[in-house]
Design goal:
The protein has helices at residues 37-67, 73-100, 109-115, 128-155, 159-180. With 186 residues, the protein is mainly α.
């Protein structure tokens, strides 16, 4: 028996039209968390901004990992990968903290690309010194933002988010030191 063709294929093509970033976060979900709704709303907004930035930073670390060339290739290749793996862990912490406070983690690649404040990673570079310089710049920029978040969260009375940002800041400083060390003395 011949199958009857329908005018509509059940496999709809992917929509390739870029979408605009979400302008306003969805409303907070109900929670018994004792942090006030106004404070939670502010913290979730900060967390979603840091989430956009860290997703971008992680992709920049992988870009460096995949494309680095030079005499110290293997050391940097491994270092950039370890940075990306740690950023994955922190991405989860940041996203989940926002959800714990009743928010929605705004963590899609499209939202990250539209909302990241990090400078675009140069795609044309190959030399290890150029990757070190570019990734160092992004680690530094994100570290400064996380440190500002420490104080903001503390001033809003959310010591847990402040503490989380402090832990992230320590590792970012360590990674910045480890990456920058490859260009010192040149």
């Amino acid at each position: 028996m011949a199958s009857k063709k329908t005018s509509k294929d059940s496999r709809a093509p992917l929509n390739r039209t870029p979408t605009a970033p979400v302008k306003a976060a969805p409303p907070l979900n109900p929670t018994l968390n004792d942090i006030s709704e106004g404070t939670r709303r502010k913290i979730v907004s900060i967390l979603n901004q840091e989430l956009a930035d860290i997703i971008d930073l992680r992709s920049q670390a992988k870009q460096a990992h995949w494309n680095v060339k030079g005499s110290n290739f293997i050391g940097l290749h491994k270092l950039f990968d370890s940075v990306a793996k740690k950023l994955d862990e922190y991405t989860d912490l940041i996203a989940e903290r926002g959800v714990e406070l009743g928010g929605v983690a705004m963590g899609t690649v499209r939202l990250s690309a539209a909302n990241s404040r990090l400078k675009e990673y140069p795609l044309e570079i190959q030399a290890s010194s150029d990757h070190v310089k570019s990734l160092s710049r992004s680690l530094s920029q994100f570290g400064a933002s996380i440190r500002a978040g420490i104080e903001t969260a503390e001033n809003l009375g959310d010591m847990d988010t402040s503490d989380m940002f402090t832990d992230i800041s320590r590792d970012l400083d360590k990674f910045l030191w480890m990456v920058e060390a490859h260009n010192l003395g040149r």
